[in-house]
Amino acid sequence: MVTEVICGEQGVMMLDEMTASALAETFKVLSDSTRVRIISALVERELCVHELSEALGLSHSATSHQLAMLREMRLVAATKRGRHKIYRLDDEHIADLFQQGLAHILHT
Amino acid sequence: MVTEVICGEQGVMMLDEMTASALAETFKVLSDSTRVRIISALVERELCVHELSEALGLSHSATSHQLAMLREMRLVAATKRGRHKIYRLDDEHIADLFQQGLAHILHT
DNA sequence: CAGATATATGAGCAAGTACGCATATATTAT
DNA sequence: ATAATATATGCGTACTTGCTCATATATCTG
Fold it and tell me: Is B28 on the interface with A (CB under 8 A)?
């Protein structure tokens, strides 16, 4: 008699909650179109808040809030120049994920 | 006299909202630790709902809800086998992004 | 100095999200 | 047929999120 294994006889390999949370946290950054657009622009060159908010078509406040979030996650860094604050990408990983994700979207 | 360009004199290259939204939508899938864990398990082998919910430590309902979402996005597919429904990954891209993201997390 | 410009940030709100509960359906076992 | 098992799904709820508004700080201009 053949005992067919259907379910639950082998162990399940699964990422632990802590690592999964850290990973999810990283992807969360790119899960909003505003942040995706900010990063897409910063991949090209560094920009000030004013340039970003104009390109986004959003208020300075909204833009600044998102930049604050990206700063807290150490994905962007800023340098003050006069009354401007110039933002740049400060994490290779995010740019890589962005590029790979974009490539996948476009090849479909 | 040297006119130093500070801001706003060059055009800003930025992804359009539609493409950015599509990209964000993709990353949103991986922006939750439960879904990350489900995908991490399905990368190894196909699994039924019961196995997933046990490994997750979540209710069958919660697990089923997340699987429904992944199904709608065509990232997983299911085959009914008796009273079990066996889920498997059905999108190469997501597995790639997951792997790359994980590699980045671990090398830090 | 006063006024304009550039950015930051707390509060509040509307929309979205992830979970559990209750319930429904389908399949298998007794 | 009845009970148990496996999964799906509508609803309610607690939580999160992304924006605007109001306000604050800093810098530049006249």
Answer: yes
Q: Which position has the token pair 């179109």?
A: A33
B8 contact residues in A (CB cutoff 8 A): 48, 50-51, 54
Hey, are the CB atoms on A31 and B33 less than 8 Å from each other? no
Round to whole Å and give the CA distance between B27 and B13: 21
Q: What is the ipTM of this complex?
A: 0.91
Query: What is the DSSP code string of B29-95?
Result: HTTSHHHHHHHHHHHH--EEHHHHHHHHTS-HHHHHHHHHHHHHTTSEEEEEETTEEEEEE--HHHH
Is B55 contained in some domain?
yes
pLDDT score for B1: 34
CATH number of the CATH domain containing A37: 1.10.10.10
Examine the pLDDT at A42 and tell me if it is beyond 80: yes
What's the pLDDT band for A108 if we cut at 50, 70, 90? Answer: confident
User: Quick check: B4 pLDDT over 50?
Assistant: no
Q: Is residue A8 part of a domain?
A: no
Residue A73 Cβ < 7 Å to strand D: no
Residue A78 lies in a domain: yes
HSE-CB at A70 with a 13 A cutoff on CA atoms is: 29
- A49: domain range? 30-106
- B48 Cβ within 7 A of any nucleic strand D atom: yes
Residue B2 placed within a domain? no
